[in-house]
Amino acid sequence: MHLTLYAAAHRPAAASEPQGGIAGWAAGLVETFGGPGAGAAIALENVFPPLPSEVILPLTGFAASQGVLSVASALFWTTLGSVVGAVVLYGVGAVFGRERMHAWWAKLPLVKASDLVRTEAWFARHGTKAVLLGRMVPVFRSLISVPAGVERMPLPVFVALTTAGSLVWNTVLVMAGYLLGDQWDVVGAYVGVVSKVVLGLAVVALAVYVTMRVRGRGREKP
Asked: In sequence order, what DSSP letters do the residues of the chain get, joined into one string?
């Protein structure tokens, strides 16, 4: 039985059906290609963060519960897709390079070269934890790959950390979709709240940083 047809027949009227939008697109990939389709969707989600893993992964778990693919296949292919997408962004950071980053940074207002140097020093000390744990934080899970590339974190280390972190994140969301069945979309609602909180904290941190920099420059003036 096709995933979309099953959802349409058994899902409560209040729940959304994966017939259009991102959910419908992801459902089509999984139905047509199975595990590789789920992996491709997650690889694209890593490169383009607006594609939500909190929709794609639970939907893949739901597909596994309906026999479209096995749980093992779902976890293998989605984790592989996560790593492939992360490596693409790592490559972007590596190509952009440290020198270009410094040149671009120097053109920005309200920042100093020393700020970037301190950031690089922080990443040198905590980069492994940032990459590992960052894979489990919405939005940040994609963005962390870029500084890892800029700082040229050894690729085998980056891949190992990305694989481990992605496997944990993917397992939680895929199994949630598997266990919730035709209520898989509940997962997206809860993870979406976490995403908004993370983005909100990032905006607040940026606002505080800019305010401090402006005040600091004001004090430096004679």
From this structure: --HHHHHHHHS-TTS--TTSHHHHHHHHHHHHHSHHHHHHHHHHHHHSTTS-HHHHHHHHHHHHHTTSS-HHHHHHHHHHHHHHHHHHHHHHHHHHHHHHHHHHHHTSTT--HHHHHHHHHHHHHHHHHHHHHHTTSTTHHHHTHHHHHHTT--HHHHHHHHHHHHHHHHHHHHHHHHHHGGGTHHHHHHHHHHHHHHHHHHHHHHHHHHHHHHHHHHHH--
pTM assigned to the model: 0.71
Task: Give the tens place of pLDDT for each residue, 3-19.
Answer: 544 444 334 333 444 55
Residue 15 contacts residue 42 (beta carbons within 8 Å)? no
For 221, which DSSP code? -
Tokens of 98: 């440290």
pLDDT by residue (tens digit) across 74-131? 999 999 999 999 999 899 888 888 777 767 666 766 556 666 566 667 677 778 888 8
Tokens encoding 31: 């139905």
